[in-house]
Structure formats: structure tokens, C-alpha cells
Amino acid sequence: MSSRPELQAPPEIFYDDTEARKYTSSSRIIDIQSKLSKRAVELLALPDDGIPRLLLDIGCGSGLSGETLTENGHQWIGLDISKSMLNIALEREVEGDLLLGDMGQGLGLRPGVIDGAISISAIQWLCNADKSSHDPKLRLKAFFTSMYGCLSRGARAVFQVYPENMAQHELILSFAMRAGFAGGVVVDYPHSTKKRKEYLVLTCGPPSLSTVVPKGKVELDSGSDYESSGDEENQTVCISDRHRPRKKQKITKKGKGKGWVLKKKEQMRRKGNVVPPDSKYTARKRKARF
Amino acid sequence: MRLLTHNMLSSNIKGVTNGFPLGIEVVKVVEKQVELNADFLKNMFHKIDWKGLVDGSRAMGYFELPGEPPETSALESEEFLSKFHHALLELHLEEGALVCPETGNICHFASTLRGFPS
């Protein structure tokens, strides 16, 4: 069975009472969610003047991401399709108001009133057709056009997504662009399979200086973050092309050699793993008696 | 649900051209104390549909707001700000329903179950 929850059941059924409880009591998930939402708020780039804004949290679930918004002093409205998740949010007494609704049917908000929107791991659910009446394209269109309508001019929307493959990725992006959004994708840690995170950073309004997409994060071997531009095309191809035949390993009588070891260490560093520094002893030959 | 959110919502039913403001059918209202932030209120004032807010607050049993939309200068008075703040952020519709103004039937955001409309 696939580990992707999207493939198992529709969201309102998958996140039932037990799953919702499990989700919110797992410290690992709480940690990931708060990290993702902190990064999303960072990408939202609201003016730093201390004035609280009215934000939207799409797929707010049990309000884990909303808590980050409250910590930043903003007012927020959360939308989710799962009643069980919202019940947990009510138990946790989150600050924002909660709406039960399906984002694929449009948002039903007045035009131009929202100062920004975030969404953590939710948009990819729109790509599934869980009912016979569902058409992913129509649902994406309804979502993005109503989103565009309710945002004020120049407002940003940051969606963290887990697209299943390149086709989904392009589908989501194309409907966002068709709705009138400017912007693009920010990829954090593009070389790592686990830490890699994609954010759709969309700006409401025509392309301008403010719509420039921020750079993604890349990890160095020392573990520190630094901002770096990533050549997105090259990075995504290696993901989509996962089923290519494995390269035959070149093993000669002499063993794999220093070059091979250095190459592997470099690969591990790019993934963000802790790797011992290279020295003159790296991959040295041992004496026969060893 | 607060009136802040009520003010942002409009009817989602197909074919409805002017789905705002939604009518409120009140079953239970609670009040929760929230810290007043004048900057936020000033920022929101231009986005709020005044008539919707006044109608909503009256439906929830709060009659202090003036019926006519006040001038921007009113935002300097603390008395007005505290009333505005109370109506916008402190009144919670705990149980009730939101009704579409055009079709009159209970609309997309219908019965308010434990604080969130469906």
C-alpha cells in the first residue's frame, strides 16, 4: 500500500477521529508542521510593521499551522474539509475561526479582503478525483480563481505542496498561473529526498518587483543554512526519473578507489548528511597484513 | 465564529450574484476577552462592510454600533475603537446558522456546529 495518504481515501474520510487524534499527538508531525508553517510565513514576506493581518489557512486541520500565525500576532481564518480535525482544533482552543468546507468548491469569501494565505501539505489533495463528480482540473480552477478573488492586490499566498510527480506539479502550477497569479516554486533542500520541500509562492497581481520568487534553502556540510539559487529543472528531473535502470557498478580488482569515495562523500554532503572531512588518509591503501 | 469572519464570508451557492451579507440565526452567543490592537482595527476598518457588521452585531444582541458608517476620524476615539473591537473580535457565534440573503435557504455555510459553519 502506498504511504501517500492522498491515495488511500478522500480527506474527509482519511482524517477520521482516530487519524486526527494520531496526527495531532505525534510530536514529530507537530514539529514538521510548525517548521513548514514558519518557513511559509517567512516566504509570505508580510511587511514588518507589527500590524496584525488577516490571513487564511487552507487545510488548517487541527490548527497546528495556525498556531504559528497566532505566534506572529496575526488573525486567521482556517478552512478544512475534515470535521474530526476541526473538532480537535476546537479542543485545542486555537485563536482563529474555523470553517468546514471543501477548497475545491471555491472559498466563498468577499473579494479583496484577505492579506495573505498559507497552506501546508493540502493542495495536492485537489489532484485526486475521489467522487465521480470530481474533476481535478475544475476543482483546481475553482480553488485558484476564488483564492485570487479574495486576496487583496499585492498579497501573497504560500502553499507547501507534495506533488506526486511532475505532471501533478505542472498541473497545479498551470492553474495557479491561469487564475492570474504571478510567482513560482521555491525548493528547499533540493538534493535531499527527505528534507526536500516545495513551496508555491504566488503573488496576486501582475508581475512586478514584489513578485520575484525568493530563493530556496540549501544545506551545507557544516549544517548551516545559506540561501542559494537552485537550477530547478535539473533538480526535479532526477526525482521524476526514479525508475530508470540502475547504473552498473564499476568494481575492478583494485577496489573502488579514492575518486569513488570522494564522489560518494560529496553526494552525502549535498544531501545534508554529516560526513567526516576529506584528508590525506581518506580511502588510503592498507598494507596487506591489515 | 466571530463577526470578523462573518464579514468576510459570502454565499457560495451557484447563480447567486450578491451573496453578502449572510443572515445570522442565533442560538447561542458567547463573549471572549481579546486584547485590543488599534493598528489592526484601523487596517481592517476599510475592508469591513459596515452594514454587514452592524446587522450581524444586532442579530447577536449588541446594539452599541452606529447604524451609519462612521467617518475615518472616528477611529481616533477610544470609545468607538473599543465598541468596534468588541463587535468584531469578542462576540462569538457559538451555535446558530448562516442564511444566504438571496435564496433565503440555509446556504453553503449552514448550521454552525460547535463554532464552525459547514
UniProtKB/TrEMBL annotation, chain A:
Chief place where the protein resides: cytoplasm
Chain spans, region Disordered: 220-290
Secretion signal span: none
18S rRNA (guanine(1575)-N(7))-methyltransferase Bud23 C-terminal domain boundaries: 202-288
Gene3D superfamilies: Vaccinia Virus protein VP39
GO biological process: rRNA (guanine-N7)-methylation
Transmembrane stretches, start-end: none
SUPFAM superfamilies: S-adenosyl-L-methionine-dependent methyltransferases (SSF53335)
Compositionally biased region (Acidic residues): 222-234
Stretches assigned to the Methyltransferase type domain: 56-132
Single GO term (MF): rRNA (guanine) methyltransferase activity
Biased composition (Basic residues): 243-257
Subcellular location: Cytoplasm; Nucleus
Any GO CC annotation of this UniProt entry: cytoplasm
InterPro entries: Bud23-like (IPR039769), Bud23_C (IPR022238), Methyltransf_11 (IPR013216), SAM-dependent_MTases_sf (IPR029063)
Keywords, ordered alphabetically: Cytoplasm, Methyltransferase, Nucleus, S-adenosyl-L-methionine, Transferase
Family according to the record: Belongs to the class I-like SAM-binding methyltransferase superfamily. BUD23/WBSCR22 family.
Name of the protein this chain belongs to: Methyltransf_11 domain-containing protein/WBS_methylT domain-containing protein
Organism: Cephalotus follicularis (Albany pitcher plant)
Automatic annotation (TrEMBL), chain B:
Similarity field: Belongs to the TRM112 family.
Source species, domain of life: Eukaryota
GO process annotations (BP): rRNA (guanine-N7)-methylation; tRNA methylation
Gene3D superfamilies: 2.20.25.10
Protein name per the record: Trm112p domain-containing protein
GO MF annotations, alphabetized: protein heterodimerization activity
